[in-house]
Write a structure and sequence with these properties.
The complex is a heterotrimer of chains A (about 260), B (about 280) and C (about 350). Chain A is an all-alpha fold and about 260 residues long. Chain A contains twelve helices and no strands. Chain A has one domain: MetI-like (MetI-like fold, Orthogonal Bundle). Helix content of chain A is about 80%, strand content about 0%. The longest helix of chain A is centred in the first third of the chain and has 34 residues. The mean pLDDT of chain A is about 85. Chain B has 13 helices and no strands. The two termini of chain B are about 30 Å apart. In chain C, strand 7, helix 5 and strand 8 form a beta-alpha-beta unit. In chain C, helix 2 crosses helix 3. Classes of the chains: A mainly alpha (about 260), B mainly alpha (about 280), C alpha+beta (about 350).
């Protein structure tokens, strides 16, 4: 018993050292820009770089767009499949899991070939079209996380009964989705949304290959040309990821809270 | 209700259309392209062209890195999750470790590469400290962050947490009574793990392995930001090919992408097969 | 020394003492039930016998050997869990074979034993099934066969019937008792269901707050409860408070002014308060039940099948009485005033 606990602590502590070292190393490195003393110079340089603002803003917009499109696509579908088309569930689930199997670089390669300027739908021909294509690509990437979160949320609801209750009170489909289903899976949607945000904000391959000025390619460019700024960027990116995960924890805890209150 | 059911499939048309246009068709386009020549006729030449030393070695090192990082990720992640769930450590360890795993499993791509360069690069913290405190120059020993082991070590940063996140619920599902029933029937701890616990966990372990494998195999950003194009792994070769046609033959690019789908596809088929096998005894 | 002997057993969890001064001697082949509400310590005692918990102090001897320092897998004990705890990845036959397999017995012997055990629980045809393909009752029988296959010295049953439907619960408990008697295996059965304990045990240990309140045969436990707790936990009971009028002649005043002659001396002094207990079946509707005659108003009538349970308000007290159902005489209606009677000799004095 005591021996087992010793091994458990050993495994956890070794693991924690492995995870802590890169974070400490990055933080330390990011402060080393000024010779001989620690300073925030690297952060100052990055944060005052107009490209940082432009690309970060672009990626935030993309992330928000992805979340909206993802919700519009996933919530009605997951709801409808649960309510009316349970036999389609395996098909839909398979489709939503495909992005985990097909490497993103293959998908975007397909986009470039399928939607180039000489194709039937020349999305890459214009800036707006390419942005749209990038948005669609991000939505595909977010699909597994979004669908799983929403479907798990729906599982804990009695969708059929809720729907019938709403219908018996005279609600139409839009009202049911907007006023009944959406509020009840809001926490699941928010969890999926924060995860999507964390994934999209630093995404590199799609943006680079579609040649869009996103945050990911910007970071790569800085990494190829500067010494200390990349470490500062890594710290910022890690903080953003941590923030997203923290928000997920927060909303889930909030949900538990309200559930207890309801009982 | 039944009167409407004939048209109820219309409700998922938007989703199916989206999946078709932006997931299935682009992928099919690549697959079909892999079997066509410039003129659009059927050919196996693209596939046979994959079997040239530079491409084969790229696949080989990609597979090795993916297997190594998935295997180590599974083993270490399992050890940490088991320590957390079964090791008798206090309960407060759990929440922070799971939250951190959520963060670290999503902390991939370009910034992760920066973090490891800042840690294990030539001027990285650990490299410097090892040299100054212990007199150990890991680069003189042949370590390089831009190598097989460097990349594997970096990938582990998201592979281990992913394993912890996936396997923890499975470990929680191991009922205490199974262990007790086994031990009262005379089984040792090892016999319990070999005959009961591991067979029960096997599908989860294997499924996670497949996922981690695909995860590492398709990863471009981390490797690209870490090594530029100095390490020839498949996704980076393909990336360079798409950007600038290094191979001078776009259809060879199709074939490379097709090869990636085949490999991750096979990994997942094995997983699905194993899961079905395991579901014989599962509800 | 008895076959299974537990002496001065004590268990603390942190500062909470969950088992206090527990002594018990079980003869070989005996079927003993631990009966009590949840949290009374009965499962903790069982788990200490199994070896899953270590006693804070005290000894446990099985067949003359002190097993406290033994690990569970060294004790040669069979155990059946409330949740069946069948290994889901193994078939029925593999589950039953598990103990023999880990002991490294030859294949032929394992096969023969598995066949024998499956025949014992009458599931010969289901050896190749997986646990999830069985009903709860079938799973629990397999768990029993698995526990018995290693020919254990002692069989421990931890609320094995609690997860099952009422009907199966009754048939399976009869089956367990029959198998136990057939094999002559020393058995401890933990339950919170008094009917279960009364129906299948040789002896019952009624536990309360970590102590054994009473150890005795079902007949003794039911008819001569040692404490007020035993009296109220085992079966339904009417508790009557009275004043002791004459201790040596056993005269008590009940319900204010009814004088009752118990016909035996009682402990205590004159004018002490005493608690008397009376089983509902000892009370009769009408005047033929015995010397104590009372009048009251019917508050409720519960038709339980073969038995009809009335609750009648007598003075300030509510009194339960059970009578057999007789098609020719329907029970009184709620609100009716009725006469009830019982014999003074049926009054129990808990602890006497």
């Amino acid at each position: 018993m005591r021996g087992r606990r010793l091994w458990a602590w050993l495994a956890l502590i070794l693991g924690m050292i492995y995870f802590a070292l890169p974070l400490i190393g990055t933080l330390e490195f990011s402060l080393r820009m000024r010779r001989g003393e620690y300073s925030l110079d690297a952060y100052r340089v990055i944060l005052s770089d107009p490209h940082f603002h432009a690309t970060f803003g672009f990626s935030v917009l993309m992330a928000l767009g992805t979340i909206v499109l993802g919700v519009l696509l996933v919530v009605p579908t997951a709801y409808w499949v649960r309510l009316r088309l349970p036999r389609w569930r395996p098909v839909i689930e398979f489709l939503t899991l495909l992005p985990l199997v097909i490497p993103p670089i293959v998908v975007v390669f397909g986009y470039i070939r399928l939607y180039n300027t000489s194709s039937w739908l020349p999305l890459t021909g214009s800036v707006g079209g390419t942005n749209l294509l990038l948005l669609f690509g991000y939505t595909v990437l977010a699909l597994p996380y979004m669908y799983r979160a929403v479907d798990t949320g729906l599982r804990s609801l009695d969708v059929a009964t809720l729907t019938e209750a709403a219908q018996s009170l005279g609600a139409g489909w839009i009202t049911i989705l907007w006023r009944v289903i959406l509020p009840n899976v809001l926490v699941a949607i928010l969890s999926g949304a924060f995860l999507t945000f964390a994934i999209v904000i630093g995404e590199f391959v799609l943006a680079a290959l579609l040649n869009r000025p996103a945050f990911g390619p910007f970071m790569q460019l800085i990494g190829a040309n500067r010494a200390y700024e990349p470490a500062a960027l890594a710290v910022i990116a890690f903080a953003i990821t941590w923030l997203c995960m923290g928000l997920i924890q927060l909303v889930t805890r909030f949900q538990k809270h309200t559930q207890i209150r309801q009982r | 209700m039944s009167s409407k059911s004939g048209l109820s499939w219309l409700g998922i048309v938007p989703f199916l259309l989206f999946a078709l246009l932006f997931l299935l068709l682009p992928t099919m386009n690549i697959v079909v392209g892999a079997f066509r020549n410039q003129a659009g006729a059927f050919t196996l030449e693209n596939i046979t062209n994959l079997f040239q030393p530079s491409i084969l070695s790229a696949y080989w090192i990609s597979i090795r890195i993916s297997v190594a990082s998935a295997l180590l990720g599974c083993l270490i992640g399992f050890a940490m999750a088991a320590a957390m769930v079964l090791g008798g450590v206090p309960g407060w360890v759990r929440g922070p470790l799971l939250t951190f795993s959520g963060v670290a499993s999503n902390f991939a791509g370009v910034p992760l590469a920066f973090a490891f360069l800042a840690t294990l690069g030539r001027l990285g913290l650990v490299t410097v400290l090892l040299r100054e405190w212990l007199g150990v120059n890991i680069y003189a020993w042949g370590f390089n962050i831009l190598s097989f082991w460097g990349l594997t070590l970096t990938y582990l940063f998201f592979q281990i947490p992913l394993m912890i996140l996936i396997i923890t619920p499975a470990l929680d599902g191991l009922r205490r009574e199974w262990k007790e029933a086994a031990s009262i029937l005379g089984a040792s701890n090892a016999q319990y793990w070999y005959l009961v616990a591991l067979p029960i966990l096997w599908p989860s372990l294997l499924g996670t392995f497949a996922l981690l494998f695909a995860n590492a195999f398709g990863a471009v950003a981390t490797a690209y930001a870490l090594t530029g194009s100095s390490l020839s792994i498949v996704p980076i070769m393909l990336f360079a090919q798409i950007r600038g046609d290094v191979l001078q033959d776009p259809h060879l690019g199709y074939a490379m992408a097709f090869g990636m789908i085949v490999i991750t596809g096979v990994a997942n088929l094995i997983y699905i097969g194993m899961r079905m096998r395991s579901e014989r005894w599962m509800r | 020394m008895a076959f299974l002997e537990i002496s001065s057993l004590q268990k603390d969890f942190g500062s909470a003492r969950v088992v206090t001064d527990f002594d018990l001697a079980v003869a070989q082949g005996e079927f003993v039930s631990f009966l009590g509400p949840s949290g009374c310590g009965k499962t903790t005692v069982l788990r200490m016998v199994a070896g899953f918990e270590t006693p804070t102090s005290g000894t446990i001897h099985i067949d003359g050997q002190d097993v406290v320092s033994f690990k569970p897998n060294q004790r040669n004990i069979g155990m059946v869990f409330q949740s069946y705890a069948l290994f889901p990845n193994l078939t029925v036959a593999q589950n039953v074979a598990f103990g023999l397999r880990v002991a490294g017995r030859p294949k032929a012997e394992i096969q023969a034993t598995v066949r024998e055990m499956l025949a014992l629980i009458k599931l010969e045809a289901l050896g190749a099934r997986y646990p999830f393909q069985l009903s709860g009752g079938q799973q629990q029988r397999v768990a029993l066969a698995r526990a018995l296959a290693v020919k254990p010295k002692v069989l421990l049953l931890d609320e094995p019937l609690s997860a099952l439907d009422a009907k199966i619960r009754v048939s399976l408990r009869e089956e367990i008792r029959a198998i136990q008697q057939q094999l002559g295996i020393t058995t401890i059965f933990v339950t919170h269901d008094q009917e279960e304990a009364l129906s299948i045990s040789d002896r019952i240990v009624v536990m309360h707050n970590g102590r054994a309140d009473q150890v005795g045969t079902p007949f003794e436990i039911y008819n001569h409860p040692a404490t007020r707790f035993v009296a109220s936990f085992v079966g339904s009971i009417n508790v009557l408070n009275g004043i002791l009028l004459e201790p040596e002649r056993g005269i008590v005043a009940l319900l204010g002014d009814v004088q009752v002659h118990l016909g035996r001396p009682l402990a205590g002094r004159q004018n002490d308060e005493v608690t008397l207990a009376l089983r509902p079946e000892s009370v009769t509707l009408g005047g033929n039940g015995g010397g104590v005659q009372l009048k009251g108003q019917v508050e409720s009538v519960n038709f339980l099948g073969s038995v009809i349970r009335l609750s009648v308000r007598v003075g300030g007290n509510l009194m339960l009485l059970d009578g057999f159902n007789q098609p020719s005489s329907p029970p009184p209606k709620v609100g009716e005033t009725v006469q009830v009677s019982f014999g003074a000799e049926d009054l129990m004095v808990p602890g006497e």
